Amino acid sequence: MTASFDGRSASYLFGELDILVLAYATTIHKSQGSEYPAVVIPVLTQHYAMLQRNLLYTGIIRGKRLVVIVGQRKAVAIAVKNVSGRRRWSKLREWLPGTGGVIDAGIGTG
Fold first, then answer.
1. pLDDT tens track for 42-51
2. What's the pTM?
3. What would the mean pLDDT of 13-17 be, rounded to a whole number?
4. Residue 90 pLDDT > 60, yes or no?
């Protein structure tokens, strides 16, 4: 069998196929509510918009036995310090009946 890794081919004999392991990738957003035996989280300054504490935390708690953060220390520091997140324009205020445009407890601020 021949497998392609980033455009490079590698050939395997039948007796060597057990060393190949399937791997899957997903986003932190799509992984919410799930757990995985191992999680690898790339954290790079090039993805500045994604460097948010809540995303990093959510990614970390998905791993049951192993979590590996790959990237730059500076990027991790930025993510840990960034608690702002993006403002969400959900129209929740307009959709909830009887709120009169006001929702208590700070919910639906946008």
1. 999 998 888 9
2. 0.59
3. 92
4. yes
Q: For strand 8-11 and strand 2-5, is the pairing parallel, antiparallel, or unpaired?
A: antiparallel
Q: Are the C-beta atoms of residues 66 and 36 closer than 8 Å to each other?
A: no
DSSP string, 70-85: EE-HHHHHHHHH----
| Long-range CB contacts (within 8 A, 24+) of 38-42 | 38/63, 38/64, 38/65, 38/66, 38/67, 38/68, 39/63, 39/66, 39/67, 39/68, 40/67, 40/68, 40/70, 41/67, 41/68, 41/69, 41/70, 41/71, 42/70, 42/71
Strand spans (E) along the chain: 2-5, 8-11, 36-43, 63-71
Region 4-8: mean pLDDT is 87
What distance in Å separates the CA atoms of residue 46 and residue 31, rounded to the nearest whole number? 22
